[in-house]
Every structure is written in C-alpha cells, then in structure tokens.
Amino acid sequence: MPSHVVQNGAIPASVVRQQVDRILQSGEFSGSEVLRNLLSFLTTHSIEKPGEVIKEYDLAVGALGKPEGFDPRMDSAVRVHTTRLRAKLAEYYMSDGLGDEILIEVPKGSYQISWHQRSVESIPQVRPDLAPILHPVPAGFSRKWFAIGAVAAAVLIGTVAGIWMLARAPKIPPAVELFWHPFLQSPQPPVVVFSNHRFVGTSATGLRIFRDGLDSPTDRNDTYSGTGTVMAVAELSELFALAGRQPRLKRAELLTWDEAQDANVVFVGAPDANSRLRELAPLEHFRFKSGYEEPRFGLGGIVNVHPVTGEEPIYFGSGRPYTYDYAVVALLPNLHQGRKVVIIAGTNTYGCQGAMDFITRADLLPELYSRLGASKGGKLPDFEALLKVEISGGVPIQPHLVAVRTHLSTSAPR
How far, in Å, CA of 105 to CA of 111, rounded? Predict the structure, then answer.
C-alpha cells in the first residue's frame, strides 16, 4: 500500500485511512451504502493517485455500481451523490467528529478528497450539555422545514464556534469576496441570525406549531431550526473563518434591536420563524406566502410583487416529494450608514441551504453580477434575487437565478 504523505501538515496515508474508517463507522454513514462506497473509492484514489483528476464515468462504474454504458451527460448520479457526501461529511463534523483532529473534505467542484490537521489546542472543547444533538422527528410531523430532520438551535452556537476554529490560510475567491466584502472588512464582527421555529412539545412527545393567543407562552419550545438552516450557517461560518473572522451567532428571538442596527447582519432561514428579519429588513420585490394562506393552502411560496413579462406572480416549491424549491437572496442597507443586511431564505430548509450555496460559489456569482450591471471589482448595488433550487435525494444540488431586482433604496443601476 502506498504511504504517500500529502497535503496540509504532511499527514501519513495510514492516518488518513484511519480517519476515513472512523467516519464510515459513524451513525451519519451507517444508513447509506452508496455514500460509504463513494467515500472509500475517493479515499483510495486520492491517496494512491494524488493530483490525478478522476472522471465521472470511473466514479459511476467503480463506486456507484453503474453499468459500463453510463453516460454522465444523461445521468447526474455522480454529481448528486458527491453533493450528498459533502453534506454528510459536514454533518459528521458537527456531531460525532466534532473533536476529531483530521478533517476530511470534498472541495466543491472536485472529485477528490482533501484532508487537514488541526492542533490539539484548536479542537473545540464543548461541554457535555452542548454536544450536538440530532433530534428525530415524529412520524406524524410533516412540516416542510423538517424534511431532513430537526437540529437543536441552542447547540448551533457551540457547534459553529468549533467550525470557526478550523480556519486555514485565507483563500476566498475574488468573486465570493466581492459579495461579502462589507462583512469581511468591517472592524465589527458580522452577526449571523438564524431562524428558530416556535413549537409546542418535544421531538419525543410530538411537535406542533405554537398558536399565538391559544397556547400558553410557558409551553413554547423555540429550540429547533431546520437542518438546511444549520448547514447554511455552518457553510457561512467556514467562509468567514477563511478570512479570520468569527461571527456572532444569534437565535432570531434573542436578537436585540441595538445590536442589530449597528452591525452587518446575515439572516438565515425562513422569515415566518424570524420576526427580526421582517422588522429590520423588509423586502420590496418579493414576499413569502405562508402555507396558511391562499392560494394553494398548505404550500408556501414566494410572491413576485412586480412581475414582468414571462415571470410568475407566485413561485411555489414542489411540495412532497421535494424536487425543487424557491429562495430569496438579498443585499440591503442596514439602519446604520455603511452597514449591510444579507437575507438568505427559502420556502423550506432546502431552499435556504441552496441559496447559501449560490452566494458562496465563485462559478455562480458572476451571473448575478452581470444581471446587476456591476462592474468587475466594483461595489454591488442593493438588490433582491429569486432563486430556484433543484433537489435530489433530499439534497440541494443546483441553484440558479430566476429574477433579479435592484432595491428601490439604491441609486445604483439595475
């Protein structure tokens, strides 16, 4: 067996294999033979043939069991399962692998794995009562933001603090840096506000939506956030870490007016579970329709306030089974001059995660800049954008722009 020593920290191949074996034996991977095979295949290839680009065809046949006539132009299985693998690895390092010294990743746009080592001092010391817990969802509970599961929102702060400590040398692509420039350059730390839904009950006894005026405030349980929201916050925290920035994380209901108005703020998650978003940064061109409203009662959507020719007045997600969702990304002015607000919100948890993926990818952002008329390297105008997010196997795989509007408060060109 080759004993290549590659990548950050000169880690022996045997140590990398041990870490991958630990991941394969974890609860996150126990139920997916496909992802186990894919991770094992990529590990062997990346160790034994470092730097050699692997073809989709080879992955499909060698790892996914596809027939020899597999055509990657007609079948997206490799891309879909690689995206799922990337998400599962992130889940592992937010739970069982929180204290692991070796980090295994699948960089975006790549069919290789990479590994990095962090010192013992940088491993987050999490109290037992703040260990990341994935709460199962009762069989009868079908709210769309719990399509994948539910995560204790109170745990998110401790978890993402650990992700921040994984910072490596800054290497944010210029296209991504342009979008996040106000947040990366401000002397004040950015504030990331994540939605947390209000329920009555627990994951063990059953959950239902809290009803204002009917349920007692003492019975309210607001410690849950959708899995897509958690994944989006984790991805954003990792981006800030590359620039040496540690965000301040806040549950929506705990954000105070004073700390919000004088900071660069990112709102992540469903607006119906984020009252501060509605108060601080109202959208002008798009509005979220609740599932409790007509038309199409029971299905959330995004209202296009000023539709133009060829656009729909309301964009609805697919509903179950989830194959696509819609989301809004917006860059807006905060109350304090020079401060900004970014909104990342979908009609369900998939849309939120897909929207975050869009604004952290250097290959997707140039289309947004072009439609905004933003010059290369120039300042972005305030805007609101509608995205469609394709979903496969419970994983957002491809977000793309549907409509872009310059915010009415800006004088910058469309």
Answer: 10
